[in-house]
Amino acid sequence: MQTTIAAEYLKRYRPEDDGVRFMPGLEFNLAGLPPLPDGILGDKVLRQNLRTALFKGPLTESTILAPQHSIDELNDIMQYFPWNFWDQLVLRATEGVSGLIPRQEYELLSFANAWLRWPEFMLDMQHRVGGLEGVVELGRRGRVPGSKINMLHIWCLGICSLLGRGVFLILGQEKPSEHVAELNTAMKFWEALAYGHRADGYLLGSQDRYTQRNLDEQWATRLVGSVDSLDNGASDFRSLMAAAELLAFYVHFDCRLGMMDLGPYILDNGNPVIVRNAFLREEVYPWAEPCDGLPYAMTFVLEIDAERAAIEELRCIDIGTLMTKPYDYVSGIVKGSVWVRDEWNSEPRQVSVGEARTLWYEQISDASLRIFNIFARTPRRHLIEQGAFVYCVGMIYPFLRELGIYDEIRDEYRLWDFDERVSRVYYELDRNQFARVTVPTKLFDPKDSAFALVPEGAGLWRSKYAYV
Amino acid sequence: MSEDRVIGTGLNVICAAERSEGVVRYLKKPSDVINLVRDGDIGNTVVLARAGTVTFVGPVLSRKPAGIITIEGAPQSHLGILAREFGVRAVMSIELADSAVERKGPDGVTSEAYVDYAAGELDGKRVVLDCSDADRGVILAAD
Description:
The complex is a heterodimer of chains A (468) and B (143). With 468 residues, chain A is an alpha+beta fold. Chain A has 16 helices and eight strands. Chain A has helices spanning 2-8, 39-48, 61-65, 71-92, 103-128, 132-140, 151-170, 180-198, 217-224, 234-251, 353-377, 380-392, 397-402, 406-413, 420-426, 434-443; strands spanning 228-229, 259-266, 272-279, 297-304, 313-316, 322-325, 333-341, 349-351. Chain B has 143 residues and is of the alpha/beta class. Chain B has one domain (6-141): Phosphohistidine domain (Glucose Oxidase, domain 1, 3-Layer(bba) Sandwich). Chain B contains four helices and seven strands. Chain B has helices spanning 30-39, 54-61, 78-86, 112-122; strands spanning 6-12, 20-27, 45-49, 67-70, 90-96, 126-130, 136-141. A seven-stranded mixed barrel of chain B has the order 1-5-4-3-2-6-7. The longest helix of chain B is centred in the last third of the chain and has 11 residues, at 112-122. Chain B is globular. At the A-B interface, helix 10, helix 11 and helix 16 of A face helix 1, helix 2 and helix 3 of B.
């Protein structure tokens, strides 16, 4: 009986398996599509209803290197991506209103700014690396532990562009036929990064049964082989990992940009191994000064006893978080190891759990409290603006840094600044609960979707040169 | 001790056979969190917070309170994940027994009135958290 339970989650990787529903009864509704459930079945049904081959199977490099998408391909993205987004929101569930950071407000502002500003940065990077082939290679460079060139950041460059378009659609300041050229730029850049980073031909983890095996084989082998029995140290390991995750949330303004779970790498005994990255330091954020002296990133490698945790399905979702059914996998962690990356570009190295605790646990806990105190004293408007920059700068920053052009882009394009139209969005945030109710409601309203399709016949060259 | 009086139920975050007990302290503002960390008896406190966001209760979470109750949020959230990793019992999205106030307002989200009502009903009470069921956590009156 126990063996049957242990094998249960492995059934999810069989092609004929439809997965289990994490949220039974909930469905995603978008105009022109049948109701879609979450999970593997939702992906299957959606793929059958799309127009092109973009999400139907592994892609080849020739598709990726095509200079632009057709309108049909853009509209497939405009339907697959929102489902993928919803599918992950369902898992996260509603966290509610934070008493510390106005996150929904800063998210909206950042989406708007990303939409108006990122395409230019993307074109600049694409030009410097010699076209989309170079962008694919840029994505490949993140296939090491402790890298922010990871699926979460890549995913964000795609979905946040669409969400920014949606903000202006909801505000009535943009039509679905406008900014098609910029939409194409953003989607091609996202797609090339994802293709290079995942290296399996898929663009999103939901297309491949929620796997994120995005490490080069050499690194995957080293990390998976490094786990050791935790014996009596399981509690120390878990609390160190929790403290590191918590600090990563503070450094990144209460969002997940400081996390990335990879895997599962499946052992011969059937147990999954998860590689969890927590980013503890980022010099470009002034509030993160208490983190000086800590490693740039800590990587926790976890072997989970699938039998003990009775795992039915395991998802490493694109927003960098492991989700399981049942949701308590923590009690099943039986082996682990700790790695650190001292600087963003230094070689990852293994440290013992005991050494890591001795060296960093107190400072990690102290830094979390100090950043909390900074946030507690920061006026709301500043919180919203700083949080917005964690998204619209922080999401693209790792790619600029990797190419060695961050300083130049920061100064030449005034990276840390809002477009004037975005500054005006600030004043809409609280009116009629725009940020907290209107946008979340309209995002997934089939009749009034923020993900409106590009109309047939719209010019691929179409931009929007004037706001009149 | 009339431990059997159920005050409310919610989504259980961590399955634990042993019950935990403490006095509920409602943390409404960041300064409430700081005050509890500075001078509160965290180990005997059951923290009550509105939302399931991890950063609001983070400083308390790592100092091991007797438990956490949230009015919104779910065990799959990062607060839920970290509560399990820190080994802190937590019950989320609570429904109060015999609630006199509807949870959702006309806009479909948790109303301020419900938050105030739940806080008023729980703040200062000594409670027991029964987290023995995998899915459902129970808040019992301890006195």
